[in-house]
Specification:
alpha+beta; five-stranded mixed β-sheet; 319 residues; 44% helix
């Protein structure tokens, strides 16, 4: 049977304990066996609504629910081997609502350099986890609604062509284009889908323009983050839309699209022979593209020179 563990705090450490009580993070010091030597008051209250003295001597691992115990045991084992470990775990809070904690376990070395104690700091990240879950739920709902909208539009087009045989070929072409847009949507918005640049560019092109007018240069086989992929899709869509309305695609002229990887950055170049004229005051499309690209860690530049429009997009590559 383990001997009782005496509280670590004495008269010489009261100031330190008072300082640690000012944080809402749960800070604990463990002995070699993983028993609690010290816990700050605010941390104990926020996690368990109990007094620090009630936790002294208890095994730290056993204070966590069985469902997450394997993870915290592994973190403590890593600290015993001399590594700083980090793990996320959920547990009911004082009000019994589920709360998420980001936990760091750091070895405290003796004079001989061996881990003799362990410092654990648990930070409440419930708000961050809840926000991520809310965003994921909204994204899933939007993917579902967009897919339904494209399906309904395809159905309406085909219904309209039933009584007009001469329009059937056109209707089939339109529904095929909707199907391509749906495929692109899944690839871009689904966090589990492939984010390879060489896969997405041809799909984007097929959804927006006549393949015979699109000339591809090098397409590096690199992967992008979700944010970079969404910025790429928005930029490509805006460029293609403008070209269909005012530029080369409207006039039946070719567009060249190429890319190159430079270290950790992907560079995409869009080039078409057309003259859009000066940027319109109050224009929203490309301005929004620039802001979104910057937010994803990239850059977006465009220029007109002797009837040639060139857009250059740079985005970070996923390592």
């Amino acid at each position: 049977m383990a001997e009782p563990v005496e509280p670590l705090i004495d008269s010489h450490n009261i100031l330190l304990a008072t300082l640690l009580d000012q944080t809402h993070e749960c800070i604990e010091l463990l002995d070699r066996d993983g028993r609690i030597l010290f816990v700050n008051r605010e941390g104990a209250n926020s996690m368990e609504l109990t007094l620090p003295a009630d936790l002294i001597g208890q095994l730290w691992v056993e204070r966590w629910p069985a469902a997450v115990r394997t993870g915290v045991e592994a973190a403590l084992a890593s600290a015993r081997s001399g590594e700083v470990a980090r793990v996320s775990a959920a547990r009911p809070g004082p009000d019994q609502s589920l709360r998420w904690w980001d936990i760091t376990v750091t070895p405290v070395r003796s004079d001989h350099g061996e881990p003799s104690r362990f410092l654990t700091i648990a930070r409440d990240v419930t708000a961050e986890v809840t926000d991520r879950q809310r965003v994921a739920a909204i994204s899933a709902e939007m993917r579902h609604r967009l897919k339904n909208a494209l399906t309904v539009a395809s159905g309406l087009v085909m219904m309209s062509a039933r009584s007009r045989p001469e329009a059937r070929t056109f209707a089939e072409h339109v529904t095929a284009r909707f199907a391509q847009l749906s495929t692109v949507q899944d690839l871009i918005l689904d966090p589990l889908s492939s984010k390879r640049f060489a896969d997405i560019i041809p799909l984007l092109a097929s959804a927006y323009g006549d393949a015979s007018l699109l000339e591809f240069g090098d397409l590096p086989d690199v992967r992008l983050t979700d944010a970079a992929m969404q910025a790429l899709a928005l930029a490509f869509g805006e460029l293609a839309t403008n070209s269909l309305k005012y530029g080369a695609l409207k006039l039946g002229r070719a567009i060249t699209i190429g890319g190159e990887a430079d270290g950790e950055v992907l560079h995409l170049t869009w080039r078409e022979q057309t003259d859009f004229g000066p940027v319109r005051d109050g224009g929203q499309g490309l301005g929004l593209v620039e802001r979104l690209v910057r937010a994803s860690g990239g850059t977006f530049e465009r220029q007109h020179d002797n009837g040639v429009f060139v857009a250059r997009l740079s985005l970070p590559i996923l390592g």
